[in-house]
Each structure stands twice: as C-alpha cells, then as structure tokens.
Please model this.
Amino acid sequence: MKLICVCTALCLSLLSMPLLADEEALFPSGYSKFYVRLGTYLVGYNETKINISSPYLLGINLDLDDDLGMDKNNQVGRIDGYYRIKGKHSLGFSYYELNHSGSRTAGREIELPDPDNPEDTITIPIGANVDSFLDTQIIRLNYIYNFYLSERAGMGLNLGLHLTRIETGIQGELVVGDPLSVNGTSVGVTAPLPVFGLKFSYKPTVNLRLMYENNIFLLSYSNYKGLYTDQSLLAEYRFWKWGGIGGGININTLKLNAKDDDAERQLDLNHGIGAAQLYLFFVY
Model:
C-alpha cells in the first residue's frame, strides 16, 4: 500500500510539469540510450503446488494456499530496463521479489522428509498450528538484439540468464496441556535458467508506445530441470522528454524439478503468477 501511495504521489507531481513538444526530433528511432521503469507489481493470481519425495517417501502434495493458509501479496516493487550499447544492441535487466507467509490449524496430517535423515520422515498432526512461508526472488539479465527498427515499430530477440531463488518452509506446534513442538523442514532452490524470447513495440502516436514481450526459459542443468514463461503486454505514454507513465499485465509460470546431489530427495514445484503493472519510466 505504501508503494502504491508513493507511485500515485509521483504521478500527480509529474503531471504538473511541461509536456514533451517534439519527441521524434530528439529520438527518431523511438529508442533512447538508457531506459528504466520503476513501479508496482499488483498480484491478482498466485498459486503454488509442491510435491516432495524420496526413496523412503512415496510423495507429499501440498497446495500452499489450501493446505497451509498462505496469504497472497497484493503488491511488490519491480524494476526493469535496458542500456543500448550501440545501434541495435542492448543489455536488459529485471528484478522483483514476492514473499508470502501463512498460519493455519492443520486439517490433515502432513508428512515431510526429515532434513537431517533422508531415510526418516517427520509428521505434523491434525490440530497443529502450522506456520509456513514461500519467498521468491527473480533476477533477469539479458542481451537484446533489435533486428528491426523503424520510426514507429521495433522487433527484438532476447538472450540471457534468469535467476530464480525459491525458498519454502513449514513448522507446526501442537498444544495439548503443555505445548509440544513439532519439527519443521524447509527446502531452498536456486535455479539458473537460460532464456530466449521475442519483444515487439509499436507507436500509434508520437508519445504512445505499445509493447509485447514473451520469454521462454528452458532448463536442463545439473540437478535442475524446468520450464519458465514470462509474458507481458504494456502501454506507456511519454509525457516529458525524460519519461512518462505506463501499465499493463504480466503472467509468469514456473515448473521445476530439483534433486539433491545424492538424489535422495526431490522437489517438484508448479508456480503461477498473474499481475497488473503500474510504473513510471525514465529515459536518457
């Protein structure tokens, strides 16, 4: 909520400044040397399902919303941008973070692999107070080749690396007379994902730009296998020489399989996010 208030205040202050008179005279191709956008990532849909298994455990299926009462963050800060090296060549970057937590009385027994002994399991019984969390951190660095540029349209190819840090944990406490603490477990995954994708932009007017970007992340590296997709549809209006206001929608999905080095345990994760974006952008 604080981030939304800050963005609103900035928008109102910027609207009082003089508009850009002739953008095409300054940037004939519609592309600046440096571009960055700062704003709010308003999460409308967020679902995560986890399966944890080992040779000693058939498999545990958890829906973090239904089973663990995980809340859904309504907002998160996000930054995206690029630096144009020369001509059609640019370097791009993105960063955003989602943190969730929940607390609920367990409605069923939950068995988890014991982090200290792969051959054993721990059980959170019915009636236990269960605390849980899911933290996701996403960083993307990529090279952009704009193979087509005109006065109003552009098409580019993205090639790069996407780093996704996912950490989830669960712990329970059962109160029967004297409090009884139940062991907890946590699983952390860092996934290095190569990425490729396409991006399109079109300017129906001098100051209005429409953008669509679709990135696909394929993973077959060491102990990780997965697929990540990131799609965005945005519209922005350049009110001033140095920037403007934009917004749109973004959809992310992640399917990941991760194993221990000794293959004693594995984690299957299905994660989906749908969100709206509201941002200010700055150019140089």
